[in-house]
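**Tokenised fold:**
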Amino acid sequence: MMKIAYILSMATSGVAAWNYREIDILQQHDVEIAAYPLKWTEGPYMPREDWHFHHPNGFRTLLLQIPACLKSPVEYLRLLGLAIRTRTILEFLLANDFAHEMRRLKIEHVHCHFGDRKFFTGYYCHRILGLPFTVTVHAYEILMNPNPNMFKLAAMACEKIITVSEFNKKEIMRVFGVTEEKIKVIHIHGDMSDERMRKSIKLFIAAEFREKKGHDVLFEALKKLNRDDLTLWVAGKGQLDVKKMANEHGVDHQVVFLGAVGKDIMNILYDACDIFVLPSRTAGSGDREGIPVAIMEAMSHSKPVISTIHVGIPELVPEMLVPENDADALAKAITFLADNPDERKRQGENNLEIIKQEYSEAEVCRLKDLFAEIIDSGIDSQVH
């Protein structure tokens, strides 16, 4: 198995989507990746728990300069002088930090994404460790490179410059004088198609991560069904570690966690899902539902709903109700609707009518009438 170090960016919103997919695919093909982001921010694509990502730490970086200097003092000072002249001191310091771990992991090759500070850091790793290194150049680094002279120096030392298009290849040759033989066009990964996901029945739960919402019961039902044609979308956030629940039930590969989403995205999700599921129950603390608004919203989008015989829910949902905490019954209800698209359509249309007749603008106007009645009665009492 090859051991490759990736120096990349997480500067604005986590791991870039193409980096994430690239790392994932390489590891599936027996390439062990150790990633070294220069900065760390949260975003839509974050490293998986089993991925090796070196978390930036300024104190550690400074501390590791001592053993780096003691190990090869002449080379350390030579490279420090170069870093001062080329205005790449931070990249030099980071490289000593990264190299310390790369040496321990027995890294065989260093690859950098973007021909800027990541590339310059990779250059110093190459000088410190004697490892071959490559870079993928995307776009801005060609005409807007923050340090063109350092790019030229690193370009001369690297094995290959990879870029994403023939146009970029010609531009790199024109701007930096790199020879054609040194540049290779390899397209970045853009295939997000998922045939299983596209064809699967989409279940949707939108709820706070609280015990009374019954996420664990839904995961247990999915586990019992063991059907590859079901995908569960989970929207929400809260006190419970619902992702951990899904992992423990062994259904995380079927679950897509969407986080807390706004009104517009929620409407899209209601429209796109096939079945809305909310297995509400009384929590151990005694906490219970009223009538969950999410069920009403799903019904207003003509969606069939599976829920539980819990407090006021039967007043809203006329069918597909199961006992609380009954994963077997919940699994049976999911199977019925998943296998009967005509029934899903019938129930969805019926649910929309219920909302229009009993849970729409007319109900808000009843509240207005109540306010007026109370105010009028107060005026009357003052008059008399």
The longest helix spans residues 361-383.
